[in-house]
Design brief:
Rossmann fold; seven-stranded parallel β-sheet; 10 helices; globular; binds NADP nicotinamide-adenine-dinucleotide phosphate
Length: about 270
């Protein structure tokens, strides 16, 4: 276990800051006196989250409007960030969307949109930020919010789950490539969290009710993510017992398939 390192004064670029886990991360990091660059598409909500952060800190808080489905806008937006606010020492890739639907019923536009946000846009942002970290010879941390859906399959999650599985595999290799530059990579794999995510992802509207006994609150997920950053963890699985479930699935995949199709089939 690493010594706890404070996030105070660190310049943190946070995607998905306008809602759910990202919004709670913004408040927790502001309380811990980090310098923040909050990102999302919704400018009104960005301004609201920034104003709420002001209650907790006198550190600078900036906003950067960014749509991850528009890859050509990522580099110019980040050039503006580097020039005006500096190179972030921590990048938190929290933005993400899902859609729970059988693969055969998916339109390809929806497939592309999910991959664009969860993977390609996130990769493009990670590439420019890590390149700047390396060039400026500063150590850093990249935090990728993936999902338990990327570790274990469940029906109606082929596209969301595979986008997150790819994000986990990407993070695992990135970790090896960035280690010589003292840039660490943390992957966070939460189970269901009570956020607006399901307004788009869950067409039935029943999923959260079905998993309410073990669904996480965004505040507790934010606490675990910040602890993962402070203790330089490699991976955070939430709830923590999911680590055992992941192991069980690897060892006994047929049992895992059966359980996913029956007991844990809630979508
Ligand atoms: N909720 C869950 O059960 C759960 C479980 C496991 C993992 N996760 C993951 O946790 C992360 C946070 O999810 P959440 O539950 O907090 O969801 P949420 O409340 O729906 O927030 C999603 C965030 O993503 C941003 N976003 C969506 N489309 C975007 C785009 N095109 N470009 C840039 N940003 C975009 C949204 O901001 P704007 O609308 O302002 O752009 C919003 O801030 C996601 O990566 C999600 O996959 C969630």
């Amino acid at each position: 276990m690493f010594r706890k390192e404070s996030v105070a004064n660190q310049l943190i670029f946070l995607t998905g800051a306008t809602s759910g886990v990202g919004e709670q991360l913004a408040y927790l990091l502001a309380k811990k006196q980090a310098r923040l660059i909050l990102s999302g598409r919704n400018q009104t909500k960005l301004a609201e989250v920034k104003a709420n952060c002001r209650e907790y800190t006198l550190q600078p808080i900036y906003t950067a409007c960014l749509d991850l489905t528009q890859p050509k806008t990522i580099q110019p937006t980040m050039e503006h960030v580097y020039e005006n606010y500096g190179v972030p020492s921590i990048l938190i890739n929290c933005a993400g969307i899902g859609l729970f639907r059988s693969f055969v019923d998916m339109d390809f536009e929806q497939v592309e949109q999910i991959y664009q946000i969860n993977l390609f846009g996130t990769m493009a942002l990670t590439k420019t930020v890590t390149k700047e970290m390396i060039q400026s010879k500063q150590s850093g941390i990249v935090v990728n919010i993936a999902s338990q859906g990327g570790k274990m399959p469940s029906p109606k999650s082929s596209i969301y789950g595979s986008s997150k599985a790819a994000l986990i595999a990407f993070s695992d290799t990135l970790r090896l490539e960035l280690a010589p530059y003292n840039i660490q990579v943390l992957t966070v794999n939460p189970g269901p969290i009570v956020t607006n995510f399901f307004e788009q992802a869950d067409e039935t509207g029943n999923y959260l009710e079905a998993v309410k006994d073990y669904a996480l609150e965004p505040e507790e997920v934010a606490i675990e993510i910040v602890e993962g950053i402070e203790f330089r963890k490699r991976e955070v699985n939430l709830p923590s017992y999911m680590q055992l479930a992941n192991l069980g699935y690897r060892l006994f995949p047929r049992v895992g398939d059966y359980l996913s199709q029956t007991v844990f089939n809630k979508k």
